[in-house]
Specification:
This protein is α/β, with parallel strands linked by helices. It has two domains: 18-244, 3-Layer(aba) Sandwich (Aspartate Aminotransferase, domain 2); 246-370, Alpha-Beta Complex (Aspartate Aminotransferase, domain 1). Helix content is 38%, strand content 10%. It has helices at 3-6, 18-30, 37-50, 61-71, 89-96, 115-120, 142-145, 199-209, 233-244, 246-263, 297-306, 322-328, 336-344, 356-370; strands at 54-58, 79-82, 100-103, 126-130, 153-154, 176-179, 192-196, 287-290, 312-313, 345-348. The strands form three sheets. A four-stranded mixed beta sheet has the order 1-7-6-5, with helices on both faces. The protein has a three-stranded parallel beta sheet with strand order 3-2-4, with helices on one face. Strands 8-10-9 form a three-stranded antiparallel beta sheet. It is globular, with a radius of gyration of 21 Å. The structure holds pyridoxal-5'-phosphate. Pyridoxal-5'-phosphate is lined by residues 60-62, 86-87, 89-90, 132, 154, 156-157, 179, 181, 192.
Length: 372
């Protein structure tokens, strides 16, 4: 083996360059590190990117989901219908408001919340639906909209995704939360954004991210409960620089995914991310495969790691996490599609600068591990 073949390939890696340094340095030199002009610039540019009327920058994707859920009126004793195949934040935000996350099973192809299962879970306490655009694959919203309940979208993995009718994810008018953690399509280190159609909801979110401060009143007047979910000017500067290179980063991710698709073709029993249907476009976030039923995932993870390739079970089912089992009495067998997918899913190294050679190496190694 050559030395490069022995190098570890990272699981994820942001694209950061001279433009990020320049804008962050400008903020440092300005001396204005919070609630300055970059906040509004970042919000406007982001709203334009996804075709939303408004956008509110916040300190994380989770903070965005929390405020979005509050903005549609979710509170004590309500139920929020959401996907058990997600990052835990999408369920946690309901618990923050003393509401109950009610899970419904997922579609076996898109891995998104199944609208029929969601409809069957509706009760008189249901206050909102919280579909997750999992792995950047856009949720078809129409069947959820027909249920006539407020919708909050978890778009934290879906920047760049486009619905079948051409609307970008985040531009449908419902509050939609994006996340900017270091592995996302766009990063500010930590950060998030809520896009929204209704200006009154933006006002509420802007106030609640800033301790419930009334927009035009004396700074000491806090007319409602709020949080500190502000995003710093440094983070906004990073975000603006990242937006300038977003199309290139998204295109690079799509190219890496296409290479994986070719390189992993025809491994028996291995399921690749679903193809894009009916004009929908995935905003590529991660490359997650489902292993053949015959293989043991822990063994596969170990054998890949021994060859310098990190991988990660992704995602474990939320309802089977110990907090959710204990607090809401969940158990195995409730959501069979989700549980089957969660037991077989594996995220492979995936990032915009991933070379053809790196993709080949991961694919060949996985092939050798699965078909010894
Ligand atoms: C990343 C992510 C979030 C938000 O994460 P933060 O770390 O709070 O920015 C929420 N939901 C999903 C599905 C995610 O992948």
């Amino acid at each position: 083996m050559t030395p490069t073949e022995l190098d570890t390939i990272p699981l994820a890696q942001p694209v950061l360059g001279a433009r990020e340094e320049e804008l962050v340095l400008e903020v440092l030199r300005s001396g204005r590190l919070s609630l300055g002009s970059l906040l509004e610039r970042f919000e406007r540019a982001f709203a334009a990117q996804v075709g939303a009327g408004h956008a509110s920058a916040v300190s994380s994707g989770t903070a965005g989901l929390h405020l979005a859920l509050r903005s549609v009126g979710v509170s004590d004793g309500d139920e929020v219908i959401t996907s058990p195949f997600s990052f835990v934040a999408s369920a946690n935000v309901a618990v923050y408001e003393r509401a109950r996350p009610v899970f419904a099973d997922i579609d076996p192809v898109t891995l998104n919340l199944d609208p029929n299962a969601a409809a069957a879970a509706v009760s008189e306490r249901t206050a909102a639906l919280l579909p997750v655009h999992i792995f950047g694959y856009p949720v078809a919203l129409a069947p959820f909209e027909r249920l006539g309940l407020p919708i909050v979208e978890d778009a934290c993995e879906a920047l760049g995704a486009v619905h079948a009718d051409g609307t970008p994810v985040g531009g449908s008018g419902h509050p939609a939360a994006f996340g900017f953690y270091a592995n996302k399509q766009l990063t500010t280190g930590e950060g998030g954004m809520v896009t929204i159609g209704d200006g009154a909801l933006k006002e509420r979110i802007d106030s609640e991210r800033n301790q419930g401060r009334a927009p035009n009143l004396d700074w000491l007047d806090h007319d409602r409960l709020g949080f500190n979910y502000r995003l710093s000017e440094l983070a906004c500067a990073l975000g603006l620089a990242q937006l300038e290179r977003l199309e290139a980063m998204l295109a690079a991710r799509a190219r890496v995914a296409a290479r994986y698709g070719e390189a992993l073709d025809e491994i028996e029993g291995l399921a690749l991310p679903c193809p894009e249907e009916g004009g929908a476009r995935r905003g590529w976030f991660v490359y997650v495969v489902q292993l053949p039923r015959r293989s043991d995932r822990d063994t596969v993870v170990g054998e890949l790691a021994a060859r310098g390739i990190p991988s990660k079970p992704y995602f474990p089912a939320v309802h089977l996490m110990s907090y959710y089992r204990e607090r809401f009495a969940h158990r195995e067998g409730e959501f069979p599609v989700c549980e089957d997918v969660a037991a077989r899913s594996l995220a492979l190294p995936f990032f915009p600068a991933m070379s053809e050679g790196q993709v080949e190496r991961v694919a060949e190694t996985l092939r050798a591990v699965l078909e010894p």
